[in-house]
């Protein structure tokens, strides 16, 4: 039996056990109802305390309703019991009263059901509130404003989640502003207090973020919102607020902002062009800014002309793109590589990756893609291919073969071209000893060559030796080799060789024919020498005899005849000498010897006395200025001097008072300039062009062979010199010969 | 002494020398070989050895240069009072250079021998030590 009910019954009915049996059930029901009421009150009390301001009004309303209803029940019950007392006293309970009681019981029963339902709702409500706070990380709190001046003690309520947010076990401490502020970040305390003040005193909305520091040092960011609750008389009674832990959200936000910034930077700075095309409407919807770098066209250009991307593609490359189109429409990712001519008329290689998006009916909705400028890559690849191709072509087509041998002279590499040279394929020679392929007679040379290479790493060595061909033939090879055994990549002696058999044969043939030529030249020289002796010896003998007759005869006629014979013999002798000089000049190699001008000229001057009868009358003057030793061919220099001087003497002017020949030699380290000047009969102008011609003689009276000046000219040319002359009939002739000093000339 | 294979040249040489009274005695040698034999034979007979040898170059058997090589090997007493002059038709510079390179050769003359050349011989002989 409910305590309150018991007391009430006891008040009216002295003895409970005296209650009539038929009302026992009724009182049981009333007792239960009382129990519910008490429980309700407890729940309400707690709910009101726990609920936020929004729930307060509802709770109040429910409380009022319940209180009022209970009041009615309570009042009517009181009344009924009063009647019951009266009737008990009279021992008379009227039907009416029973009727009334049963009605009350009915109401109570209904009320009890209502309470049960409400209790369930309250439980649900409370647990729901609890869970939602926990899930949302939202805590709630309130404090009374009636004693706001004692802020520290005015805190009345923290929800469980508020405890948790602030790092306390729910219910472990008494909520207080002091406890709250111990958790607030010291820097944020003034801000927070000011906000509270302004909100309470000035009615500003309390809505802020601040930091808290938990006992373990964890920093959290809290978002708080609060409102002032006023009563009916508009008096501020309490301050109710929520607090939310937004640390994760803020952190996530920061991360998101950072990621966004990174993405934006990436998007703006990458050279690739990202694009999206709405394929239903053939409209470019996105195009990254870098399109300008690649295409030269702006984003707007692409937005306005959806076909621009294909319009710039080179005609010959469009086919490949169309070929991929159907694949793309099937929803497959594609990659196109093609060239464009951009706005600046530059050809660029592009690579575009496209990801298509289809709808449920396999209709192409949109494509997303990225286009990269791969010109540099293609160029580099092309260059690499070219150089590889060149190198391979070079190796395959070169007449040179390359082998690499190790320190034991075993072949570790052979180029393909080795087959062309030796007939053996690379795989037939690799692994075998280099010596196996060398012609037996040359093995010693080859061993020496390889040992020499081994002893001198990095030095280039050359050798020529014979190899055995696969077909048994023998070839001459010329090889250039370098020891790269210390090179980490090569690790061997690289030998580059080629077949020089033909060249060698040709060289040998040339050498042989040269030898033959030399031989026949020598023979010819000996022949010429003998002929000159055999032809001239009888002439000089005849001259000797004539000389004897000359002095011994007194007969003038004989003497005259003898002179004629002598003159003709001299002419014949000169002629033979000239022809011999000419033939020797043309055939013999030039010599490089010191030319002693003084000795040479003295000898010529002496010889002239015997050769030219008029020599005695002519004054031959010699002047030599030598500042360096002169090198040339003395034999040929003699021919030049001899001819020019003898001509000068021979054609001296018999009428001149003082016939002379002035010989002047200016010799230095570069050249010798020889001037031979006479005051002889001279050469008439019309003959100037002809005097160097072969067999040209000015007149029949001329004693010479007509070869003299021709030989001079030929000889001067042979010595790489020059000859000039000036002449005037009756006055004289001047020849200027310049001969290089071959000691200082590279031409020889 | 005149060494020459050509009879006419030997004849001319002798005639010219006699004509101009160049010397008391002319020894005629028709080959270099014979000349060498003579010199070797007469090496102890100083009066029989020549003061001057006129030497031709082109001769069959032993030529002038070969004679010079052999002459170099002869005992000093034979060569002491003797000088050699070349008398040849060859005007080749090579011949002249080769001959003048020999220490025993004093001069190089071209044939034929005549009065002027004898005078030149005389002037050289006068300088003879």
Describe the protein in words.
The complex is a heterodimer of chains A (748) and B (129). In chain A, 50% of the residues lie in helices and 22% in strands. Chain A is rod-shaped and about 225 Å long. Chain A is of the alpha+beta class and 748 residues long. Chain B has 129 residues and is of the alpha/beta class. In chain B, 44% of the residues lie in helices and 16% in strands. Chain B has helices at 7-19, 32-41, 64-72, 76-79, 93-100, 115-127; strands spanning 2-3, 28-29, 52-55, 83-88, 105-110. Chain B has a five-stranded parallel sheet with strand order 2-1-3-4-5, with helices on both faces. In chain B, helix 1 (7-19) links the parallel strand 1 and strand 2 (28-29). Chain B is globular and about 35 Å long. The two termini of chain B are 19 Å apart. The chains are: A alpha+beta (748), B alpha/beta (129).
Characteristic terms for this protein:
heterodimer; A: 748 residues; 5-stranded antiparallel β-sheet; 22 helices; 50% helix; B: alpha/beta; 5-stranded parallel β-sheet; 44% helix; globular
Give the SSE map.
The complex is a heterodimer of chains A (748) and B (129).
Chain A: H1 3-12, H2 21-50, H3 53-89, H4 95-136, E1 138-144, H5 151-154, E2 155-158, H6 160-165, H7 177-183, H8 189-202, E3 206-213, E4 219-230, E5 236-245, H9 247-269, E6 273-278, E7 283-287, H10 291-295, H11 299-304, H12 308-311, H13 315-329, E8 334-341, E9 347-358, E10 364-373, H14 375-397, E11 400-405, E12 411-414, H15 418-422, H16 426-429, H17 443-455, E13 460-468, E14 474-484, E15 492-499, H18 501-552, H19 556-587, E16 593-594, H20 597-611, E17 619-626, E18 631-632, H21 634-650, E19 660-667, E20 671-678, H22 708-718, E21 722-728, E22 732-740
Parallel strand pairs in A: 17-19
Antiparallel strand pairs in A: 1-2, 1-5, 3-4, 4-5, 6-7, 6-10, 8-9, 9-10, 11-12, 11-15, 13-14, 14-15, 16-18, 19-20, 20-22, 21-22
Chain B: E1 2-3, H1 7-19, E2 28-29, H2 32-41, E3 52-55, H3 64-72, H4 76-79, E4 83-88, H5 93-100, E5 105-110, H6 115-127
Parallel strand pairs in B: 1-2, 1-3, 3-4, 4-5
């Amino acid at each position: 039996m409910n305590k309150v009910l018991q007391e009430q019954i006891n008040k009216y009915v002295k003895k409970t056990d005296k209650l009539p049996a038929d009302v026992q059930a009724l009182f049981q029901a009333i007792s239960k109802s009382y129990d519910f009421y008490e429980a309700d009150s407890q729940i309400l009390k707690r709910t009101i305390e726990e609920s936020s301001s929004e729930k307060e009004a509802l709770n109040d309303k429910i409380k009022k309703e319940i209180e009022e209803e209970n009041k009615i029940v309570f009042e009517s019950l009181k009344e009924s019991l009063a009647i019951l007392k009266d009737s008990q006293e009279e021992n008379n309970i009227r039907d009416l009263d029973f009727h009334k009681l049963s009605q009350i019981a009915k109401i109570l029963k209904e009320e009890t059901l209502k309470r049960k339902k409400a209790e369930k709702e309250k439980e649900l409500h409370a647990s729901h509130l609890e869970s939602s706070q926990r899930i949302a990380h939202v805590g709630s709190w309130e404090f009374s404003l009636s004693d706001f001046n004692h802020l520290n003690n005015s805190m009345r309520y923290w929800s469980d989640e508020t405890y948790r947010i602030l790092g306390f076990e729910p219910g472990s401490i008494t909520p207080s502003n002091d406890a709250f502020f111990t958790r607030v970040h010291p820097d944020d305390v003034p801000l927070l207090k000011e906000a509270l003040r302004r909100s309470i005193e000035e009615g500003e909305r309390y809505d802020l973020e601040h930091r808290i520091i938990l006992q373990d040092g964890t920093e959290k960011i809290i978002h708080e919102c609060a409102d002032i609750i006023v009563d009916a008389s508009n008096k501020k009674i309490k301050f109710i607020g929520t607090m939310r832990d937004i640390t994760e959200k803020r952190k996530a936000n920061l991360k998101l902002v950072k990621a966004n910034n990174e993405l934006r930077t990436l998007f703006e700075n990458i050279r690739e062009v990202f694009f999206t095309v709405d394929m239903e409407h053939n409209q470019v919807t996105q195009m990254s800014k870098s399109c300008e770098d690649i295409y030269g066209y702006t984003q707007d250009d692409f937005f306005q002309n959806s076909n621009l991307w294909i319009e710039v593609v080179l005609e010959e490359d469009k086919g490949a793109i169309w070929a991929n189109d159907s694949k793309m429409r099937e929803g497959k990712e594609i990659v196109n590589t093609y060239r464009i001519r951009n706005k600046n008329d530059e050809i660029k290689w592009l690579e575009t990756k496209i990801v298509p998006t289809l709808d449920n009916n396999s209709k192409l909705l949109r494509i997303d893609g990225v286009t990269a400028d791969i010109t540099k890559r293609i160029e580099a690849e092309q260059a690499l291919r070219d150089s590889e191709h060149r190198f391979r072509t070079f190796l395959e087509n070169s007449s040179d073969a390359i082998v690499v041998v190790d320190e034991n002279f075993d072949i570790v590499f052979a180029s393909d071209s080795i087959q062309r040279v030796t007939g053996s394929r690379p795989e037939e020679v690799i692994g075998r000893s280099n010596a196996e392929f060398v012609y037996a007679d040359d093995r010693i040379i080859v061993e020496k060559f390889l040992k020499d290479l081994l002893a001198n790493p990095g030095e280039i060595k050359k050798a020529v030796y014979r190899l055995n061909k696969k077909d048994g033939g023998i070839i001459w090879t010329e090889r250039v080799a370098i020891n790269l055994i210390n090179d980490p990549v090569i690790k061997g002696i690289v030998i580059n060789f080629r077949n020089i058999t033909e060249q060698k044969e040709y060289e040998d043939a040339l050498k042989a024919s040269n030898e033959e030529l030399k031989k026949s030249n020598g023979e010819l020289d000996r022949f010429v020498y003998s002929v000159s002796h055999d032809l001239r010896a009888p002439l000089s003998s005849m001259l000797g005899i004539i000389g004897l007759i000359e002095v011994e005869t007194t007969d003038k006629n004989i003497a005259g005849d003898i002179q004629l014979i002598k003159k003709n013999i001299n002419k014949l002798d000169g002629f033979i000498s000239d022809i011999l000089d000419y033939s020797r000049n043309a055939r013999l190699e030039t010599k490089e010897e010191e030319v002693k001008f003084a000795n040479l000229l003295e000898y010529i001057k002496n010889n002239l006395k015997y050769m030219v009868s008029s020599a005695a009358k002519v004054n031959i003057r010699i002047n030599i200025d030598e500042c360096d030793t002169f090198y040339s061919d003395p034999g040929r220099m003699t021919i030049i001097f001899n001819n020019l001087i003898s001509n000068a003497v021979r054609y001296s002017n018999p009428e001149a008072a003082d016939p002379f020949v002035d010989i002047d030699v200016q010799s230095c380290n570069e050249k010798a300039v020889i001037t031979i000047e006479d005051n002889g009969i001279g050469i008439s102008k019309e003959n100037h062009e002809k005097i160097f011609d072969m067999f040209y003689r000015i007149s029949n009276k001329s004693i010479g062979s007509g070869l003299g000046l021709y030989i001079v000219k030929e000889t001067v040319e042979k010595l790489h010199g020059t000859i000039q002359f000036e002449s005037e009939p009756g006055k004289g002739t001047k020849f200027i010969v310049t001969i290089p000093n071959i000691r200082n000339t590279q031409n020889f | 002494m005149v060494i020459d294979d050509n009879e006419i040249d030997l004849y001319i040489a002798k005639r010219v020398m006699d004509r101009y009274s160049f010397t008391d005695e002319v020894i005629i040698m028709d080959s270099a070989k014979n000349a060498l034999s003579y010199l070797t034979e007469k090496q102890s007979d100083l009066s029989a050895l020549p003061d001057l040898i006129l030497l031709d170059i082109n001769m069959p058997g032993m030529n002038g240069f070969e004679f010079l090589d052999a002459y170099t090997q002869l005992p000093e007493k034979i060569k002491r009072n003797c000088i050699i002059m070349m008398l040849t038709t060859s005007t080749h510079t090579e011949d002249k250079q080769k001959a003048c390179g020999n220490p025993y050769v004093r001069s190089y003359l071209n044939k034929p021998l005549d009065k002027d050349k004898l005078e030149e011989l005389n002037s050289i002989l006068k300088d003879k030590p």
